[in-house]
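Hey, I was hoping to borrow your eyes for a little while. I'm sending you its amino acid sequence along with the backbone structure tokens. Take your time with it, there's no hurry, and the full record follows here.
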Amino acid sequence: MTDVSTPDVTLTASAAKRINAILAKQDGAAYLRVSVEGGGCSGFSYKFDFAPEANGDDLVIERDGARVLIDEMSLEFLKGSEIDFANELIGAAFKIKNPNATSGCGCGTSFSV
């Protein structure tokens, strides 16, 4: 497990606040897991899940008590990214600002590299 001191991926205060609120309502979930999967309209898509514990190859990011897991394979696509939570007129959602993405789709959940 990689320590939180690595700057590979960061969390905004807004994302940390929302993660804490969500995890408080999820029985047995101690972490939000963010991963990258093949698929989506641009080639890759972000996936958000809950996890009770970290795996050995997970990067653990922590801010203000919120803890996020990213597996080693997904980290290759997410290095340098910022996880944010935006509450906009059209809806509220987690947003990933990914410097590795060369293009994305309108929904913001898929990208290409």
User: Anything to note?
Assistant: The helical segments are 13-24, 72-78. The mean pLDDT is 84.
